[in-house]
């Protein structure tokens, strides 16, 4: 970039920032303007103090317009065909007359430099549709930061009138538990073959799923996929029941052949009916709100502790003493707490 | 209790307290004296400040004599036959020339008034053996408190020369995750029938188990138990692999007919060999020590926050605002943090 280009870029950025003011963004978002929604999410993601204050105002204003979408989490290891599946699903949802937003959660993107939705071209067909909104991964220094940005993005998307919000994540880390705790319905995409492919899926994720979908069920793969579905179905019966009385569904599906994409939609619909009737839909949302209140408190307390100047060198020293069995874990913790509290 | 009895009881208690001094207890414990061990654990459980200081000294002194046992967690819903199984297993271990201690974790005991090992007579045959030590549930106000007492009891038992330490817990709460994080080997006892009986088992526990044992495999029940074992075996193959390379084993067993109790022992032995050879045994222990260091820090930070005078009424108010959608979870958390920090 030469000096002229740099100056032009800075000017553009200045203009863009100035346009990110609360009232314009809010009225744009409520009208369903995608540019305003996009700028609103950019504001959420900014680390500038003044932006953050403006973002909080925006989230609070949007809050009373939020809550009406169906929030769906989608996870699965790389290679399972998540974006192809989401694109097929999204197109169906749009064809039915609904609006769909796709947000991605990828806490690893900071490190790896990659982002699961970074390659926007992956969902070309969906992204050009008027009633679809695709937003690449929110980056953040911590899982807590990513969670916050995602939760707040959901509120903005809902205020913009989206009926379905899909939260996509990779099935390899802590991020599924996080996504599970901010959605109504959680889908796990799986590959047939049930062997090595599963290695990447974290233990416990299968038990969190409301639907388990064996993907790429087309051509030669269909028989294998059906067999895998049957096995998962048997396994699910061994799991303890969900509190909401929902029995997780297993499906085979093919995005390529549009096979069972509609059935996936129907499954979500019948889940929503089931949980709305027995009251667990609303209960779950309230629990999630409460969960995030206390989760954020824990996060803040811990990050204050671990970033304390006084403990910079002490933590590693105490960890070593504990691991070598010179002091107990509990005595180690007390030692660090005393330093932290100036005792 | 009349006045005379009360006076006598107080005198006994005073004498007992005075006998709980560090040096006597330590030398007793190291000699393997069960009375000293028992008094040491009582000291750990005391809430008196002076006792707690003495207890910390004792734990630290025992620390260098600890670490040599095999720590085994046992869980399963009420009715699965935990104590019968543990008794049969314990007697076998003693017959092989080893020493076994059985500790119970029951964080619910405070509320329910009941304790899973409160009824000591349940393990009559085992408890009379010289090389067996049975300790009823540690009570505590919080899961963190119970965890600490149990971890420290393990250290004392190891200093007293026990080869096997069994930690028993009920499969219905957060306590399994806690027990899993303080043992080398984790066993889940299950009933045949695989239906309603599982309702009580928390989701995710099956995936934590290193061995899954279908109990009461005797008489008419044997065929049903074998079928259940087969089903669990199939389910386990669908789970992601353990980091330590161990494939969880499934067994049927009968304490009544002494069937496969020895095989349970062999399974633990082969697990220990497997993980010692690939180094994961020691790695896991170090990770556990580190985990408990940081877990205790989190616990302390949170309990300081939630017991803060300044927040007594505020927490419920903010929770309500969040649940009713008047402010976001994140703004609610910030509000409480500001009050806590006098800002």
UniProtKB/TrEMBL annotation, chains A, B:
Stored SUPFAM superfamilies? P-loop containing nucleoside triphosphate hydrolases
- Which cellular components does GO assign to this protein? cytoplasm
Q: Provide any one GO MF term from the record.
A: GTPase activity
Among InterPro entries, the record links this protein to: GTPase_ArgK (IPR005129), P-loop_NTPase (IPR027417)
Domain of life according to the entry: Bacteria
Q: Say which family it is in.
A: Belongs to the SIMIBI class G3E GTPase family. ArgK/MeaB subfamily.
PANTHER family documented for this protein: METHYLMALONIC ACIDURIA TYPE A PROTEIN, MITOCHONDRIAL, METHYLMALONYL-COA MUTASE
Q: What NCBIfam families does the record point to? A: lao, PRK09435.1
Q: State the name under which the record lists this protein.
A: Methylmalonyl Co-A mutase-associated GTPase MeaB
* Organism for this UniProt entry: Brumimicrobium aurantiacum
């Amino acid at each position: 970039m030469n000096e002229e280009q740099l100056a032009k870029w800075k000017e553009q950025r200045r203009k863009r920032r100035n346009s990110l003011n609360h009232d314009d963004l809010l009225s744009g978002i409520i009208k369903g303007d995608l540019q305003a929604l996009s700028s609103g999410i950019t504001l959420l993601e900014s680390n500038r103090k003044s932006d953050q204050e403006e973002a909080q105002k925006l989230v609070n204003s949007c809050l009373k317009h939020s809550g009406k979408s169906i929030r769906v989490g989608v996870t699965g290891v790389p290679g399972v065909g998540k974006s192809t599946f989401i694109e097929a699903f999204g197109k169906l949802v749009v064809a039915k007359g609904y609006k769909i937003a796709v947000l991605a959660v990828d806490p690893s993107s900071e490190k790896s430099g990659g982002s699961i939705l970074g390659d926007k071209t992956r969902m070309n067909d969906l992204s050009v549709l008027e009633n679809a909104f695709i937003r690449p991964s929110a980056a953040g220094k911590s899982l807590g930061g990513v969670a916050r940005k995602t939760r707040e993005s959901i509120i903005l998307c809902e205020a913009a009138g989206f009926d379905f919000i899909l939260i996509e994540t990779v099935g390899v880390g802590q991020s599924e538990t996080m996504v599970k705790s901010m959605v109504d319905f959680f889908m796990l995409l799986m590959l047939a073959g049930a062997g090595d492919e599963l290695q990447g899926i974290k233990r416990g994720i299968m038990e969190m799923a409301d639907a388990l979908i064996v993907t790429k069920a087309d051509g030669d793969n269909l028989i294998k996929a059906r067999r895998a579905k049957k096995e998962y179905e048997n396994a699910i019966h061994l799991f303890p029941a969900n509190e909401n009385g929902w029995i997780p569904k297993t499906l085979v599906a093919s995005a390529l052949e549009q096979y069972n994409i509609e059935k996936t939609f129907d499954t979500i619909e019948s889940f929503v009916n089931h949980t709305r009737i027995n009251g667990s839909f609303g209960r779950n949302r309230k629990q999630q709100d409460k969960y995030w209140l206390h989760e954020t408190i824990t996060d803040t307390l811990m990050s204050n502790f671990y970033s304390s100047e006084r403990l910079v060198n002490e933590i590693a020293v105490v960890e070593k003493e504990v691991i070598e069995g010179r002091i107990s874990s509990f005595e180690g913790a007390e030692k660090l707490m005393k330093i932290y509290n100036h005792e």
